[in-house]
Amino acid sequence: MASPPGPITDLLRSWSNGDHGAMDRLLPLLYELLHDVAARHLRREAVGHTLTPTALVHEAWMRLAAQTRLTINDRTHFLALASGAMRRVLVDHARRRLADKRVAPPPVESLDLAHASPDEWAVTVIAVHDALARLQQVDERLYKVVECRFFGGLTEEETAEVLQVSPRTIHRDWLKARGWLLMALRD
């Protein structure tokens, strides 16, 4: 028999059902976890990125709060959704950066962004986002695996729980999705 949901899951479900007070009670409980996810996202970004983990958490939270039909199953599912919102914030930031410069973006040369220029960072983030959009059209589950594993930082077991498949399936899907993305980025 499954164990009863905890207070965070109860609040998430209340939020899903339209209780905005639950949302206000959730932020203090989840803030540290969200900050860790934001910091993980920003570790992959270019040095000197203008967004901080705190700003990324707040922007993602605002985007999630603005959604009127958000179904959240549990804490792990919420972290995957929040991570996706953070990725979209970063992509929007990269698009604005390139639009402000009004220059043609350089081609993607590498996914190693540790020493990338701000322009290389912006182009790579957008290229990965666009490749993920194509992957979503090809295989929704592979897309969700990348969202959970790469962007959400979830383990194979946590991802399996979110997607309701076995950890072994997640392992195979993760390998397949990474290979697909690398090939898509080279095209």
List the helices and strands and how they pair.
Blueprint: H1 7-16, H2 20-43, H3 53-66, H4 75-101, H5 118-138, H6 140-151, H7 156-163, H8 167-186
Helix pairs in contact: 1-2, 2-3, 2-4, 3-4, 4-5, 5-6, 5-8, 6-7, 6-8, 7-8
Description of the structure:
With 187 residues, the protein is an all-alpha fold. The protein has 8 helices and no strands. It is 73% helix and 0% strand. It is globular. The chain has one domain (7-186).
Structure at a glance:
The protein is mostly helical and 187 residues long. It has helices at 7-16, 20-43, 53-66, 75-101, 118-138, 140-151, 156-163, 167-186.
What would you call the shape? globular
Number of helices: 8
Number of domain modules: 1
Distance between the termini: 49 Å
**Percent of sequence in beta strands:** under 5%
Estimated structural class: mainly alpha
Q: Helicity range of the residues?
A: over 70%
Number of strands: 0
Rg measurement, Å: 17 Å
Please name the defining characteristics of this protein.
single chain, 187 residues, mainly alpha, 8 helices, 73% helix, globular
